Amino acid sequence: MAMLMPPALLSSEQIESLCAASAQKVDALRVLLRGTGSALVAFSGGVDSTFVLKIALDELKANAVALTAISPSVAPDEADEAKTLAQSLGARHVLVDSHELSDPRYAANPSNRCYFCKTELYSITSKYQVDLGLAVVLDGFNADDKKDHRPGHQAAREHAVRSPLAEVGLTKNEIRAWSHRLGLPTWDKPQLACLASRLPYGTQVTVERLNKVGRAEKSLRELGFVTFRVRYHAELARLEVSAAELPRLNEPTLRAKVDQAIKACGFTFVAVDLEPFRSGRLNDALPAAGLALPVL
Fold first, then answer.
1. C-alpha distances in angstroms, 75 versus 10, 208, 214, 252, 286?
2. Dist. CA 176–CA 184, nearest whole Å
3. d(CA 277, CA 239)
4. Strand 269-272 vs strand 64-70: parallel, antiparallel, or unpaired?
5. What distance, in Å, lies between the first and last C-alpha atoms of the chain?
6. In angstroms, rounded to a whole number, what is the distance separating the alpha carbons of residues 126 and 231?
7. Where in the chain is the domain with CATH 3.40.50.620?
8. pLDDT (tens digit, 0 to 9) for every residue of the chain, 296 residues total?
9. Can you tell me the distance from the alpha carbon of 268 to that of 250, in angstroms, rounded to the nearest whole number?
């Protein structure tokens, strides 16, 4: 069976249309960043923070610095990719260890877990902002993120972190379109989330569990899957795969390889979710469990 890869996120026509419709927003972004004088970019290597860093470098040159926090919550491949991206863009890149797992509030994995993670991150960026003499810290929060459960953004506000993409109203697809036009390799990169997001709320976050999920997801990437999640349910790994890639699991040989690879990471059972992957599915369980979304 031939490998079925997901279709392009955006067609050439869609990219041109999105760029034309959002050109004024990008102009406003450039003015905004130029007006800061200097900036530290919280850089994960994802679509949004890479775009922010690129425009910041265009407008601020050496006065734009990237900072990436490294912890067990971040897949090693993502940390390596962030290093490669920053180097390719010519950015000064600061790598710092973060210790959110040492915070028992984060480790308890409440529905606002991201708040404690981002509090750790922005405490670090605030320190380096001062040490490096930079005017502001920037994140990759975009206009579409306002529609989702994003408790980490409260931490950004508390630390006076600016979200230039959201400020000028740029949406995810507009950012992807402009990233394509600017030649950024992240333009069609799947959405990122820390490995702790694979654990249901209330399930303790541990290094062992994060590593287990991280190894399982790496094995799926090595088998050619692009957009997916491995959700942790104790002995069970629940696979969420994109609609375009789900048919690949109908092929018996590949399905057996997936089963073997995931079990080799320490899971006893492997299940495939019949609903294709979509970002934010973890939050679906909040109302059913009687856990209200925090008001931010």
1. 26, 13, 6, 29, 25
2. 9
3. 9
4. unpaired
5. 48
6. 33
7. 13-181
8. 333 444 457 999 999 999 999 999 999 999 999 999 999 999 999 999 999 999 999 999 999 999 999 999 998 889 999 999 999 999 999 999 999 999 999 999 999 999 999 999 999 999 999 999 999 999 999 999 887 777 888 999 999 999 999 999 999 999 999 999 999 999 999 888 899 999 999 999 999 999 999 999 999 999 999 999 999 999 999 999 999 999 999 999 999 999 999 999 999 999 999 999 887 666 666 654 445 443 33
9. 21
What is the rounded CA–CA span in Å between residue 51 and residue 170?
11
CATH number listed for the domain at residues 206-282 = 3.30.70
Query: What is the CATH number that goes with domain 13-181?
Result: 3.40.50.620
Phi, psi of 273 (to 5 degrees): -70, 130
Helix (H, G, I), strand (E, B) or coil at 92: strand
Q: Which residue do the tokens 């409260």 mark?
A: 154
User: Whole-model pTM?
Assistant: 0.89
Side chain identity, residue 173 = N
DSSP classification of residue 6? P
Token pair in block for residue 148: 């989702």
